[in-house]
């Protein structure tokens, strides 16, 4: 028989060349872009410097960044920077450690035990919306005007958001993984240690970003009452003298403290969440 196709019969089209299918979640995976954040900050500072020098921005509204840099240099040379910064760091570290550690423990208990959930969730919901700064006079009465009231305010302020984020993260752990662990005969403690806690860790670390930011805000409020040294006391003194250069120097220190805190949490995420793809 002839190998030629019959008249009127359509020829079979050649198959399209195969191409690899990209990873479907790749478009949602964050890709690091180096130096972009630093360039944005530098561009903003340069814009403010240009505006204050040309008169487009009043010096009564914003000081020149170069003058703020000169204030930083004076703080460094005179040693006042560390006299104000070290007490603030110690207060933030102690208060946040107390609030965060207690909040994680209580949040895990609420997420794991029905009795704890029934008894503590209404209490947390009741105290969460209370403005923590409004409780500073009460803490001064209870713990005195010295360091105790400052530790208590920061600890209380970081406690409630940590509890909410922690038990929410525990609730969001995939129940299929838990049932899989039970089908393999894992003990209750093994399921908590190998499935629940690692699965809740992303949510816990995300909650820490909010909790520690609140801690920095409450640190400033606490130091504005009855503190001789500290970033909050420094900002309060500069504001009372209408010294914008010193005031913005203190604000920049707080911003840098927030950036360093966020960087520390990002480092912890890379170490603790290396199993994520």
Automatic annotation (TrEMBL):
It is found in: Cell membrane. The keyword Ribonucleoprotein does not apply. The chain crosses the membrane at residues 33-52, 92-113, 120-145, 151-170, 210-235, 247-268. Coiled coil: none annotated. Keywords: Cell membrane, Membrane, Transmembrane, Transmembrane helix, Transport. InterPro entries: MetI-like, MetI-like_sf. The keyword Signal does not apply. Residues 85-265 form the ABC transmembrane type-1 domain. It is a multi-pass membrane protein. Its main location: membrane. It comes from the Bacteria. Belongs to the binding-protein-dependent transport system permease family. This is ABC transporter permease. It comes from Seohaeicola saemankumensis.
């Amino acid at each position: 028989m002839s190998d030629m196709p019959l008249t009127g019969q359509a020829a079979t089209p050649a198959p399209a060349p195969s191409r690899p299918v990209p990873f479907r979640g790749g478009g949602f995976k964050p890709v690091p872009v180096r130096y972009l954040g630093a360039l944005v900050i530098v561009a903003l500072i340069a814009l403010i410097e240009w505006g204050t020098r040309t008169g487009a921005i009043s010096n009564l509204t914003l000081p020149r960044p170069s003058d703020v840099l000169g204030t930083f240099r004076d703080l460094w040379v005179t040693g006042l920077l560390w006299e104000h910064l070290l007490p603030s760091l110690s207060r933030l570290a102690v208060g946040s450690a107390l609030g965060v550690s207690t909040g994680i423990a209580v949040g895990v208990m609420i997420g794991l035990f029905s009795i704890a959930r029934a008894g503590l969730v209404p209490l947390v919901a009741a105290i969460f919306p209370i403005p923590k700064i409004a409780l500073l006079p009460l803490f001064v009465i209870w713990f005195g005007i010295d360091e105790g009231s400052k530790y208590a305010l920061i600890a209380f302020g970081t406690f409630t958001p940590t509890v909410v984020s922690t038990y929410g993260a525990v609730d969001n752990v995939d129940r299929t993984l838990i049932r899989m662990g039970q089908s393999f005969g894992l003990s209750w403690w093994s399921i908590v240690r190998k499935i629940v806690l690692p699965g809740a860790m992303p949510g816990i670390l995300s909650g820490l970003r909010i909790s520690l930011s609140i801690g920095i805000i409450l640190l400033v409020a606490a130091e504005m009452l009855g503190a001789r040294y500290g970033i909050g006391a420094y900002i309060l003194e500069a504001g009372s003298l209408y010294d914008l250069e010193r005031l913005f120097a203190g604000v920049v220190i707080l911003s840098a403290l927030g950036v360093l805190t966020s960087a520390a949490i990002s480092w912890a995420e890379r170490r603790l969440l290396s199993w994520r793809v």
